[in-house]
Specification:
alpha/beta; TIM Barrel
Length: 419
């Protein structure tokens, strides 16, 4: 099998992994080295960075050969699929040639478990070592840690990669036992804890010794599959919040389950991926990280799943009418962040601008407030927007209409199922 055949197989096998991002690290160009990593870069394969640039990472598996038989995985050992594997030298050469041709800005490397977790990690480390030490590659590298690998291998990988990730895959221990019996909760969480501790210790070392090796400077992330099991949004969001707090993760990625194999324990092959549910979880994740919300505020035992017709923030606002309307001239930052249509940037702009003037709705629009949502929840000088008409009974429908227009096409198609 030639190199291009391997590339075709192993890039296709990597497409179901959503957990790649290059944000949070800066490595400047150096004499004698190739490439650099900018802290402004944020994205995955064929996506956009924070400054608007299209960023591309080579997202590939070292091998799709796997000793595990996870029921949901296209690369499971019992599945009849074409198998391939790069040698460390082949992968390093391929990456550097792609970089020199300006196809990519970095590498996202994962792998099936070939022979054992330790053997697979050794091969990944060998490939990254060739890139870093022989080719002097100074660009961004995101590497997937294999659960169950020895701690010293996790350390070695973290000294070569910018970001590490350990995929949880399924949100519950019961789901793992049912669909991925070769994996355990402890095997997944143990390297997460090691990476967390390693990042903390490394920051202290760098503070003392400027030229100390850097361990996973862009932190760690994980991915959860949504829709393969019966876990509720409440369970998934509570787990997400716990991971941020306990392990200091940079991101939790959600991946709508795409039926690729037929199994009695999984959704049928004609089931559409739950893209709308994935979208709602990302919106809620944003509220946890940047808006000061708690998971228990957004969902409870009575409402364990997100409303498909409304985004989580609008749904929260409708469930807490006593909080509104908010007077923009007096509200604090935390109050403003609770208003649908007002984000962290526009909230801080409001705080700055109102020191100089009395704000009206025209000013709010100029400051970046999304008035088609915010107009129902804020007042300026004690008054709603002139001509605005709504009632507690009509407001959910009005907000749902706004949401329908703003959703991407795939999510809109799924929303139509709900009327």
């Amino acid at each position: 099998m030639d190199l291009m055949e391997k590339l075709e197989i192993l890039t296709d096998a990597a497409k179901y992994d959503a957990a790649c991002t290059s944000s949070g690290v800066k490595r400047s160009s150096r004499a004698g080295y190739i490439g650099n990593t900018s802290s402004s870069v944020m994205g995955c394969c064929h996506t956009f960075s924070a400054d608007g640039r299209c960023v591309t990472l080579l997202k590939v598996l070292l091998t799709n050969r796997c000793v595990y038989d996870c029921k949901y995985c296209v690369n499971r050992c019992s599945n009849d699929t074409r198998r391939a594997a790069f040698t460390p030298a082949e992968l390093a050469e391929l990456t550097i040639q792609f970089y020199r041709r300006n196809y990519i800005e970095g590498l996202f490397l994962s792998s099936g478990v070939c022979r054992s977790p330790d053997y697979t990690m050794e091969q990944m480390i060998a490939a990254l070592r060739i890139l870093r030490e022989e080719y002097r590659f100074n660009g961004y590298i995101h590497a997937k840690t294999i659960p169950g690998a020895a701690p010293e291998l996790v350390t070695a990988l973290g000294l070569l990669a910018d970001r590490l990730s350990v995929n949880i895959e399924l949100p519950s221990e019961q789901g793992l036992k049912t669909l991925a019996p070769s994996k355990t909760k402890d095997a997944i969480l143990r390297p997460m804890g090691q990476i967390r501790d390693g990042v903390r210790e490394n920051k202290q070392e760098i503070a003392k010794y400027r030229h100390a090796p850097r361990f996973a400077p862009a932190g760690q992330s994980t991915q959860m599959i949504v829709g393969a099991t019966a876990d509720t949004d409440r369970h998934i969001l509570s787990l997400t919040q716990g991971l941020y707090r306990r392990y200091g993760l940079k991101r939790v990625f959600f991946s709508a389950y795409v039926p690729v194999v037929e199994h009695s324990l999984l959704p049928s092959l004609d089931t559409k991926p739950p893209l709308l549910r994935e979208h709602r979880l990302y919106q809620a994740d944003w509220l946890l990280r940047f808006y000061g919300f708690q998971a228990e505020e957004l969902l409870d035992e009575t409402n364990p799943n997100f409303d498909p017709l409304l985004d989580p923030k609008c749904h929260w606002a409708l469930c807490h009418p006593a909080f509104f309307p908010v007077e923009v001239q007096r509200a604090g930052l935390e109050e403003l962040l609770r208003v649908p249509g007002i984000g962290p940037v526009s909230a801080r702009r409001i705080l700055t601008a109102r020191r100089e003037t009395v704000l009206d709705f025209t000013d709010l629009k100029k400051l970046g407030v999304v008035l088609k949502r915010a107009q129902y929840f804020v007042v300026c000088k004690g008054r709603y927007l002139e001509g605005l008409r709504f009632s507690p009974q009509t407001l959910p429908r009005q907000l749902a209409a706004v949401e329908r227009k703003d959703l991407p096409t795939a999510e809109t198609e799924q929303l139509s199922l709900f009327g």
